[in-house]
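Hi support team,

I submitted a single chain yesterday and got back a structure, but I'm not sure I'm reading the token output correctly. Could someone confirm the output below corresponds to the sequence I sent? I've pasted both exactly as they appear in my results page.

Thanks,
R.
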Amino acid sequence: SSLRGLAMRRAVLVACGVLCSADDVPSATCDADFPEQCGPPDSELSIDVSVRESSDDPEQPAAKSRKSRTTTTAMPPPKRASGSENPFSSPSLQSVWSSIPAPPTGADLLGQEVATLEEAVAQKQAKVVALKELKLAIVGEGAHDERRLASKVPLVESVVSSSEMQATSSAADFMQTVAVVEPAEDRTAFARLIGLKNFRVGTPPTPAHALLPLALLVLVSDRGNATIYTPTGSRLKEFSLGHSAPIERVATTSSQEDHIILSQDSEGIMRTHSVILKPAKPSKPSKEARRSATEAIPSKYLAVTPNVSVFFERQMRLPKKGGSVRAVTDLAISKQRGLYYLTAADEGGGVTVYYRNGTMKGRAIATDDEGGIQGLFPVPDALLYHSAHGVGFVSAETLDVKSPVCAEISSPVVSATVDASATHRVNVALQGGEVVVFNLKDRSNCKFEQRLPRLGQGPLHLEPFKGYIVALEQGVMHPVLYALNISGSPKSASPPAISLAFERRLHNLTQFAALRRSTAGAESDFFAFLRTDGAVEVVELLWTVYVVPEVDETISYKWPAVAAIVCIVLGIQWFRSRRASGGSSRNPEEDLDAVDWKKLAEETRARAQARKQQHEDDPY
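Hi R., thanks for writing in. Yes, this is the structure output for that exact sequence:
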């Protein structure tokens, strides 16, 4: 029965082959330059299949006739990869190909099966020979490749993701590369983003304002030259920051109203520049040329080039200690009560605060940890700082410092940020790759909330967004970017659920800049990735934030409480009306007996007579 079923399947395959015309099947041709690709000459595979036709009478098996059909199919030669040497020119492979037996024409079913198995064995042997030759060629290249061959292949589950969670989406669903900016002259040392006001939200803007970009990309070279680009890569302005010493740090404002660039060099000098962007106005000759043009001209609103102006504001010098300037660890621009403060953190654990006009306000000592303050993060009414073993807040307006003690910080702190949706939640990244979330609503008391799942194998740099936390590996050439979805109710006391939205591996990364927009809707968030070759990739984030609706916990007893309040109010009004009317506690029947019905009837008749007399005197 198994042979009969196999024969029937072969018959179907042969019938399908016969139905195909000769024009539809490409002929197997050989390359004249490489005749060895054709394989053994006259290598044809003959298939002889016998199909038995059953007669109408089931009791006469001997009456079954047999019809045989033989088809000859040419075995296609192995093709040569374009642009490479012929992989079948090796003598060892030629010997394997020559050993493939050609099945005899008209062989029976078993003979064809044997020939097919022998052909499969010969192909496997050819593969083994090719792999051996490839191994010999790789080993000859160097010891590094030899060690790579000797290493064991990891399991698939261990290479899918380096984190404890699996990504729910692809990075292409959230990140779109807008442009790759490659400076032509100087090498880029710093890349920063400046957010602009979105004229598309709110009142209807003018056509010129509607086409302005949502952000500006500032690239600073190692020589102190700065260039401003649009996110799409159009160059707008090039200027010099005016430093005579190498630049060490650059900071920009996160506000969409005022745009400030703060730079600091190795001599402790800080300089500020103000950036103003307006729609470019056409010149008078261009207006006259458009009026006098006889041919169709494109609209002036199709390509609007912004007019960027950069003004130098102030220069400040950091205070010295013992004849030398303290090493600056981070710069930040904070806005509190409508005023901008320029702040610089140093390795001595202090934060130096300047007004925008260059006047020094003072210096606040925040920590005595080794290495001082490692980073600053602006929040609406203060600055969040982190040192090696703690976090805290510094007020630029009053120079007050609050340093709560967080017992869950067991290793050095690498990064600290505030949740964009709930500013009382502080995310702290530790040296071992862990991320701990604290509740600092009372800034003098550190309350532990949760510990996020482990991401990557090393320390992480955190950037908060509305509904997300972006974590980037540090200390590696090809880091992985993780995006954690923390969408939830901002007013909820319990920590939100965490899920890994996507992850993306970045290659040859040296710096990472992020732009957080304050509102949703038509606003967009941006990334800027600075590579080792000086090119900057600008990426736009297309994520949407889902906020979990808040559940009213009082819905179960709200209506009973309302009904009780209504009954109480009605009862109070009833008692007040009884007290005002001098209510009696006597029996109502006694009250009816006390009425002088005769007097009441006389008064009623008198009023009726008076109305009648009035009507007779004045009928109208």
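A quick pointer for reading it: The longest strand covers residues 306-317. Let us know if anything else looks off.

Best,
Support desk
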